[in-house]
Amino acid sequence: MSNPRVTGAIRYAQDVEFEGMLHASILRSPYPHARILRVDASAVPDSVVVLTPDDIRDFGSYGCQIQDQTVLPRDRVRFVGDPVLAVAAPTKREADEALNLIDVEYERLPGVFDAVEAVAEGAPLVHEHHAISENDAAYFGIRPQEGTNICHRFRIRHGDMEEGFKQADVVVEETYRTPGAQHAAMEPHASVARWQDGRLEVWTGTQTPFNLRMDLAGIFNIPESQIRIISPPMGGAFGAKTFVRTEAIAACLAQKAGRPVKVVLSRYEEWLTLNRHPATLQVKLGARADGTLVAKRVVCWVDTGAYADCGPGVAQKMGYAAVGPYRIPQVWVDSLCVYTNLPPNGAFRGYGAMQAVWASERTMDILAAKLGMDPLELRLKNVLVDGDQFCTGEIMHDVHFIECLHAAAGTIGWADNKQGKGLCVLMKGMQTPSRASIVVEANDDGSYTVHCATAEMGQGAWHSIRLMAAELLGVELEKVHYAEPDTDIVPYDTRTTSSRSTYMMGRALVEAVRDLKRKGELGYGECVNKGGLDPDTGQGIASTHWHQGAAAAEVRVDEETGKFQVLKLYTSIYAGRVVNRPGAELQNEGSMIMGLGTTLFEEIAFEDGQPANANLSDYNLPAAGDLPESFTSDLFEREGAEVHGLGETALPPVPPAIGNALYSLGIHVTDLPLSAEKVLNAIDSRQQAKGGRA
Amino acid sequence: MSRNIPQWLAPTSLQEALALRAQLGDEATVVAGGTFIGILMNQKIMQPQALLSLRNVSELAFIEASQDEGSLLRIGAMTTHRAVERSPLIRQEWPVLASTFSLVASPRVRNQATVGGVLADADYASDPPTLLQALNARVVVRSQKSEREIPVEELIIGYYETSLRPDELLVEVRVPRNRERVVYRKFRSRSSEDRPCVAVAAAQVDGKLRVVVGAVAEKPQYFPEICALAEGETGGYTRELVTEIGQRYAESIEPISDSRGSAAYRRRVIAVEVRRALEEMVP
C-alpha cells in the first residue's frame, strides 16, 4: 500500500480549504519589551479584516499552566515576535501587504534575557501577576513567586542535605548551561478556524486537542461543547504543537470576518512561536570514598521566555530528572521556572530531561575522576534497582538500568579501554496523573473503527494502535480503521505527549476490546494513572511508568582545532514489549539524531533579545553526513512485560555520553553545544588531571 | 514586510539578457540558481523590484576544455555545482575542482546553485571562490558593448560586493589547466552540510605557490609575499616552512566572528589548516 505521506495524498491542517476562506498574517513586535502606545490600521483596505488589541479586550486570558496570555497583548509586548495584531485577506499576499500599511508606536522598556539574571533583585518584571490556569494541563501545585519573574518553584526536600554532605569524603560541584533549540518540524504550525451557528470548529496540527479546547472555551467564554477540534496528521511536532499556538488568532479573525480563516506560519515565525527551554543547572554531589552517593543539591534556572506555557511542568520534571536514577539518601532541589523577554519555550522532545541528564551525568563522571573510580562502576554501585526508593519517596519497580548500562558499555569495548569513550544512564518520567480513553466500534462490514484522541505526528501512533487493536480483536490489520481525532467524537485523552500514547492508550484499548466483546457494537475503555508530586517537598509519585535507557559514545578529537568526530553512538532502551519494531527503531534513531544536533551545534542565538540565527541556513540541523559511522541501538524486551513508551528516551542520554567521552580525554566542557571552539578552549585549559591524556 | 511580488524577467538568450541588463541595471536583481537570492528574500534582507533570471539562457550552461589556447577549462555561468561535480572531463582533468564543488551544502542545493552565481554573489562563506582564486581562474564579463576578462581576485572586492558594473553579466569562468599540485581543505566547525568556517586552497601555478584562505574575511585572502617563502622548494616543503607559512597567514588575516567561530578561533584554525594543506601538497 502506498504511504500517503510519500504520495502527497495526506491532508495536513494547512491543506484544509473552505469556500470564501481568508488567509491570515501576523504583525509581530520588533522589540523584546515595549509598551504599545498607538496602533493605526486605518490605511488597510476594507477587503482586509484587522484584529486589533481593542477587539479582544473582552476575551479571556489563557495559558495551559499560568493564565498569562491574551490573544493579542493588550498593552505590552514581551518578546521579539509577540503578535501585536493580525489581519486576514482573500490571499496570503494581500494579508502580508496589509501589514506594511499598519503603523504601531512603541515605547521601549528594559528587557531581561537570561533566567539567572531575571531572578536577581531589580530585574525588569515580565508579568506583574501570575494567575494559575484552570486548564487540565495545570495538573500539579503551581507555585508562582509574586513580585518576581519566577512563575513556578518546584522543590525536593528528601532527607537532610547538610547532614549528607558532612558524611561525604568527596564533593564535586559544577554549573552547566544548555541553550534554546528549535523543533524545526518539517510542517510549520497551521490551523483553520470557522464558526458555524455559534460553534467554533478548528482544524489544527495539535498534540493536545482537549487542552486546546479548554483554553479556547475560556477565551471566548463559551462551553467546551461549543468547540470542535479536529487534529489531522502532522508533519512532525516534537512538543511544539501543544496547547494554543495559532488557533486563537485564527478563531478571533474568523469570528470577526464571519468567514473561515487559515493561519500558516513561516519558517522564521516558528522560532518566534515555541523553542526549547535554555537552562542553567548547578549541581553539587557528595560520595563516600567507596563511591556510595550520600547527598545531592541541584538548582535549576529554567528560562520559559515571555509566557509560561508548560514551563512549570518542564521545571518540575527537570528538577527530579536532575537527581538521576540513583539511590541518594539526602536530596535538595530547587527548580525555578523563570520569565524572560525571549520567545516562549515549551515542550521539546525530552521535556526538561535533556538539560537535567546533561548536568547530572556529566557530574557523575567528574565525581568518578575525583574518586579515582571507573564511571561505569560508580553508576552500577548507586543505580536504582527494584525496591529502591527514589528521591520522591516512591518505590521503584520494573527498573532495568543495569541491563541498559552493561549493554552500552559492552558496545564501546569499555572493559578494554576507556579513552575517548563515555557512558550515560537516564530515567524519564511519564505524564502523571493522566487519563486515556478510547472507543472501538464494530462496523457492519466486519471491520472496526478506533476512535481516540491520540495524534499522529509522524511517530506512527495510529499504526501502533491499529496493530494492537488487530491483535486484540483477532483480525487482519486492514480490518482496523483509525478515525482522525475529532473532539466531537473521540473520548477524552490528556494529550499526545511524554511518550505515553502506546502505553496508556494501549491499556485503554485492552479494556475497550473487552467491553466490545461483551456488548457487540461499541466498546469503551480507559486507563487512568494516578499520582503527582507535592511542589514544596517533591514527595509523592513522579511517574507511574519510567522511561529507561543508557547511551555510549566514542569520539576522536582533532586536538589542534577542537573539532571532534563521533565514531560510535549507541543507545540501549528498555521497551518491555515492542508493538511495531521498524517504527520503534526509527523513532529511537530519530531521538538519537536530535540528541546529536543538540550535542554538536544546535543553539538559538539571541542578541539583546533579537533572534540572530532564526533560519535553517544559520541554524544547523544534523544532516546525514553528521551521523557516526557506527550508529546503533537496542530495544530490550521481556517475556510478558508491558509496553514502555519510547518516543523520547534516546535523546537525553546522547549529549552526556559524548561529553563524557571528551572528558575521558581530559576535555571538560560544561555548556552545550560542544562546539569545536569550546572543545579547543577546554583542551587549552586541560589540566594534568586524572584521565587526561596530556 | 513583503512588498509586491517582484517582476520576473526570463530572457531566453544572452543577447536578450544583456539588453535587459543595459536597460534596467541595478533595478533588476540578477538571479541564477536562486539559492542565495532566495535566502535573502525569504529573510526579507533583499526585496527586489524585479528579478532578471538567467535560467532560460541555455547557452550559458556548458563545460568545455579547449586543447589550444593553453589548455583552458571554460565553464558557463549557468552550469550548476552538480554538473561540475559530475563532469567526467573535470573529474579527470581538474579533480580538485570537481571535489570542491561536491563539498558545497547538499545535493538539493548543488542541483540549483550555479558557478556564475557563487562568484557573483560574493558571499564570504563559500567554497568555490577560494579554490578558483588559488587556481588563478578568470571570469568573462560581458555587456552589450564590451567583453572583459578579469581574475577572480579582482571580481570579488568585499562582502557581497563585486566589480561587476550595472550593465554587465558574468558569463563564463576560465580555469587554466593545472598539472601541478592542488589541495582544497574545507574546515567545518558545525554540520557536514554547513558552509566553511575556514577554507584553504593551495596550488602550484606555473611553479609558484598560491595559498588562498576563504570564509574568514570579506573576500578570499591571498598573500603572495608569504607564498614567496616557498620559492625554490621543489621537492616538497619542510615542516618548518609550512608551519611558518600557516602562522604568517594567521597573523596577516583579520578574521571575522560569526556563528561558525570567533575571530580568535579562526586565527588558530587558519594556522593549522594552511599548514595541513601544504603538508598534503607534498607528493
Name the descriptors.
heterodimer, A: 694 residues, Aldehyde Oxidoreductase, domain 4, seven-stranded mixed β-sheet, five-stranded mixed β-sheet, globular, disordered C terminus, B: 283 residues, alpha+beta, Uridine Diphospho-n-acetylenolpyruvylglucosamine Reductase, domain 2, Uridine Diphospho-n-acetylenolpyruvylglucosamine Reductase, domain 3, four-stranded antiparallel β-sheet, 12 helices, 14 strands
> Which stretches of chain B of 5+ consecutive residues score pLDDT under 50?
none
Radius of gyration of chain A (Å): 25 Å
Assigned CATH class of the domain at 434-529 in chain A: Alpha Beta
Percent of residues in beta strands of chain A: 25-35%
Structure description:
The complex is a heterodimer of chains A (694) and B (283). Chain A is of the alpha+beta class and 694 residues long. Chain A has a domain at 434-529: 2-Layer Sandwich (Aldehyde Oxidoreductase, domain 4), CATH 3.30.365. Chain A is 24% helix and 26% strand. In chain A, the strands form 8 sheets. A 7-stranded mixed β-sheet of chain A has the order 3-5-1-12-9-10-11, with helices on both faces. In chain A, strand 27 and strand 28 form a beta hairpin. In chain A, helix 8 runs parallel beside helix 9 and helix 12 runs parallel beside helix 13. Mean pLDDT of chain A is 96; it is low at 690-694. With 283 residues, chain B is α+β, with helices and mostly antiparallel strands. Chain B folds into 3 domains: 7-53, Uridine Diphospho-n-acetylenolpyruvylglucosamine Reductase, domain 2 (2-Layer Sandwich), CATH 3.30.43; 58-176, Uridine Diphospho-n-acetylenolpyruvylglucosamine Reductase, domain 3; 182-281, Enolase-like, domain 1, CATH 3.30.390. Helices cover 34% and strands 23% of the residues of chain B. Chain B is built from 12 helices and 14 strands. In chain B, the strands form 4 sheets. Chain B has a 5-stranded antiparallel β-sheet. In chain B, helix 11 packs antiparallel against helix 12 (263-281). The mean pLDDT of chain B is 94. Chains A and B meet through helix 2 and helix 16 of A and helix 12 of B.
